[in-house]
């Protein structure tokens, strides 16, 4: 072991559907709530201490979707919450991937 901590986190995702499909009436926060409730409700003793939430294509009505989801899910308001976009994660992952040629040990 090299002395680095290893963190494991459970995760779920919102469903995929066509833009004009059965979920079209729901916004990103409404789609997020069942996932957040499933992640936080099953282990009532485990309280999140950080909220990181994101979307592929952000809704311009939310400046910080993580905070909006946190409020709607009745999570503790004092914990930090920040948002990311999947596009950013993909770019970061590509930069750090050994196959990209940009990875450094």
Features:
single chain, 105 residues, alpha+beta, two-stranded parallel sheet, 3 helices, 2 strands, globular
- Secondary-structure class: alpha+beta
Q: In percent, how much strand structure appears in the residues?
A: 5-15%
Measured distance between first and last alpha carbons: 16 Å
Strand sequence of the main sheet, in spatial order? 1-2
The count of DSSP E runs of length 2 or more, i.e. the number of strands, is 2
The chain-level mean pLDDT equals 75
Please tell me about this protein's structure.
The structure is a single chain. This protein is α+β, with helices and mostly antiparallel strands and 105 residues long. The protein has a domain at 28-100. 31% of the residues lie in helices and 10% in strands. It is built from 3 helices and 2 strands, in the order αβαβα. It has helices spanning 28-41, 65-72, 86-96; strands at residues 51-55, 81-85. A two-stranded parallel ribbon has the order 1-2. Helix 1 (28-41) packs across helix 2 (65-72). The chain is globular. The two termini are 16 Å apart. Mean pLDDT is 75; it is low at 96-105.
List the helices and strands and how they pair.
Blueprint: H1 28-41, E1 51-55, H2 65-72, E2 81-85, H3 86-96
Helix pairs in contact: 1-2
Quick recap of the structure?
This protein has helices at about 30-40, 65-70, 85-95, and strands at about 50-55, 80-85.
């Amino acid at each position: 072991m090299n002395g680095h901590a290893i963190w494991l986190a459970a995760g779920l995702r919102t469903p995929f559907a066509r833009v004009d499909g059965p979920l079209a009436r729901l916004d990103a926060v409404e789609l997020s709530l069942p996932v957040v409730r499933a992640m936080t409700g099953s282990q009532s003793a485990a309280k999140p201490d950080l909220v990181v939430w994101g979307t592929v294509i952000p809704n311009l009505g939310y400046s910080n979707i993580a905070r909006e989801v946190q409020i709607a899910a009745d999570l503790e308001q004092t914990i930090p919450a920040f948002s990311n976009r999947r596009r950013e994660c993909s770019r970061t992952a590509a930069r750090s991937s050994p196959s990209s040629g940009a990875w450094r040990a």
